[in-house]
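If you are new to this repository, start here. Below is one unmodified record pulled from the training split, so you can see the exact layout before writing a loader.
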Amino acid sequence: MHKDIMREVRRFDSKCHSDFFELHSAPNGGGWCNCVAWWVPTWEAWRDRRAEENQALRESLCSRGEYDGYLLYVNNEPVGWCQVGPRDRLEKLRNQFGLKPDPKSWAITCFFIAKSHRCRGLASHLLSEVLLDLQERGVKRVEAFPKRGAGLGTLDLWNGPEAIFLKGGFKVWRDDPKRPVLVKEF
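And here is the target side for that same chain:
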C-alpha cells in the first residue's frame, strides 16, 4: 500500500451506523446479508430471506445496542467489516460447532471487504487491529470458524480466510477438514 493511503479501524457504534449500511450494499457485493446470519435461529430457510428482512434484523440489533463488530476505513470510506463479540450470544454458532457455554470466549464470525478493495491485504490489517483492541479490552480468548476445502470461492470466505487467522497467531483448537475451530489466547 502507498504511504498516502489512510487506513483506520473503528468499533461499530451508533456514530458509524450509516457507514455499516453503506458498506453492506449491493454495489459493494454485500447488500443481502447485513451480517445477521448467526443471529437467526437456524439455517432453515436462510437462503429464502429477503434483504429487507436482514436489514430489519440488523436495525433491531442496533436499536438494542448490539453493535457487534469493527469497520475498516480507507481514506475515510468504509471498505471492510469484521463481526466479533462474546461467543455465547450466538446460540446457533454454539450449537453448530457443539461448543459448551463459555462467557469468557469471544468469536470472530464474519469478514467482509468491499469488492473494489479485495486482494490488498486489508483483511489481515483489519484482523490485526481488531485483535489489538480486543486485547486492550481485556478479552482473553477469541475463536474463529473459517471454511476449508478445495475450490472455495469469495462467497465461501464470509467467515474469514483461514490463512489470515493462522498468520494472526491463531492455533487449530478443533481440527476438521471443512470447518475447523481456531483459537487465539492472549
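Two things worth knowing about this chain: The two ends are 29 Å apart (CA to CA). Residues 7-185 form a domain with the Aminopeptidase fold (CATH 3.40.630.30).
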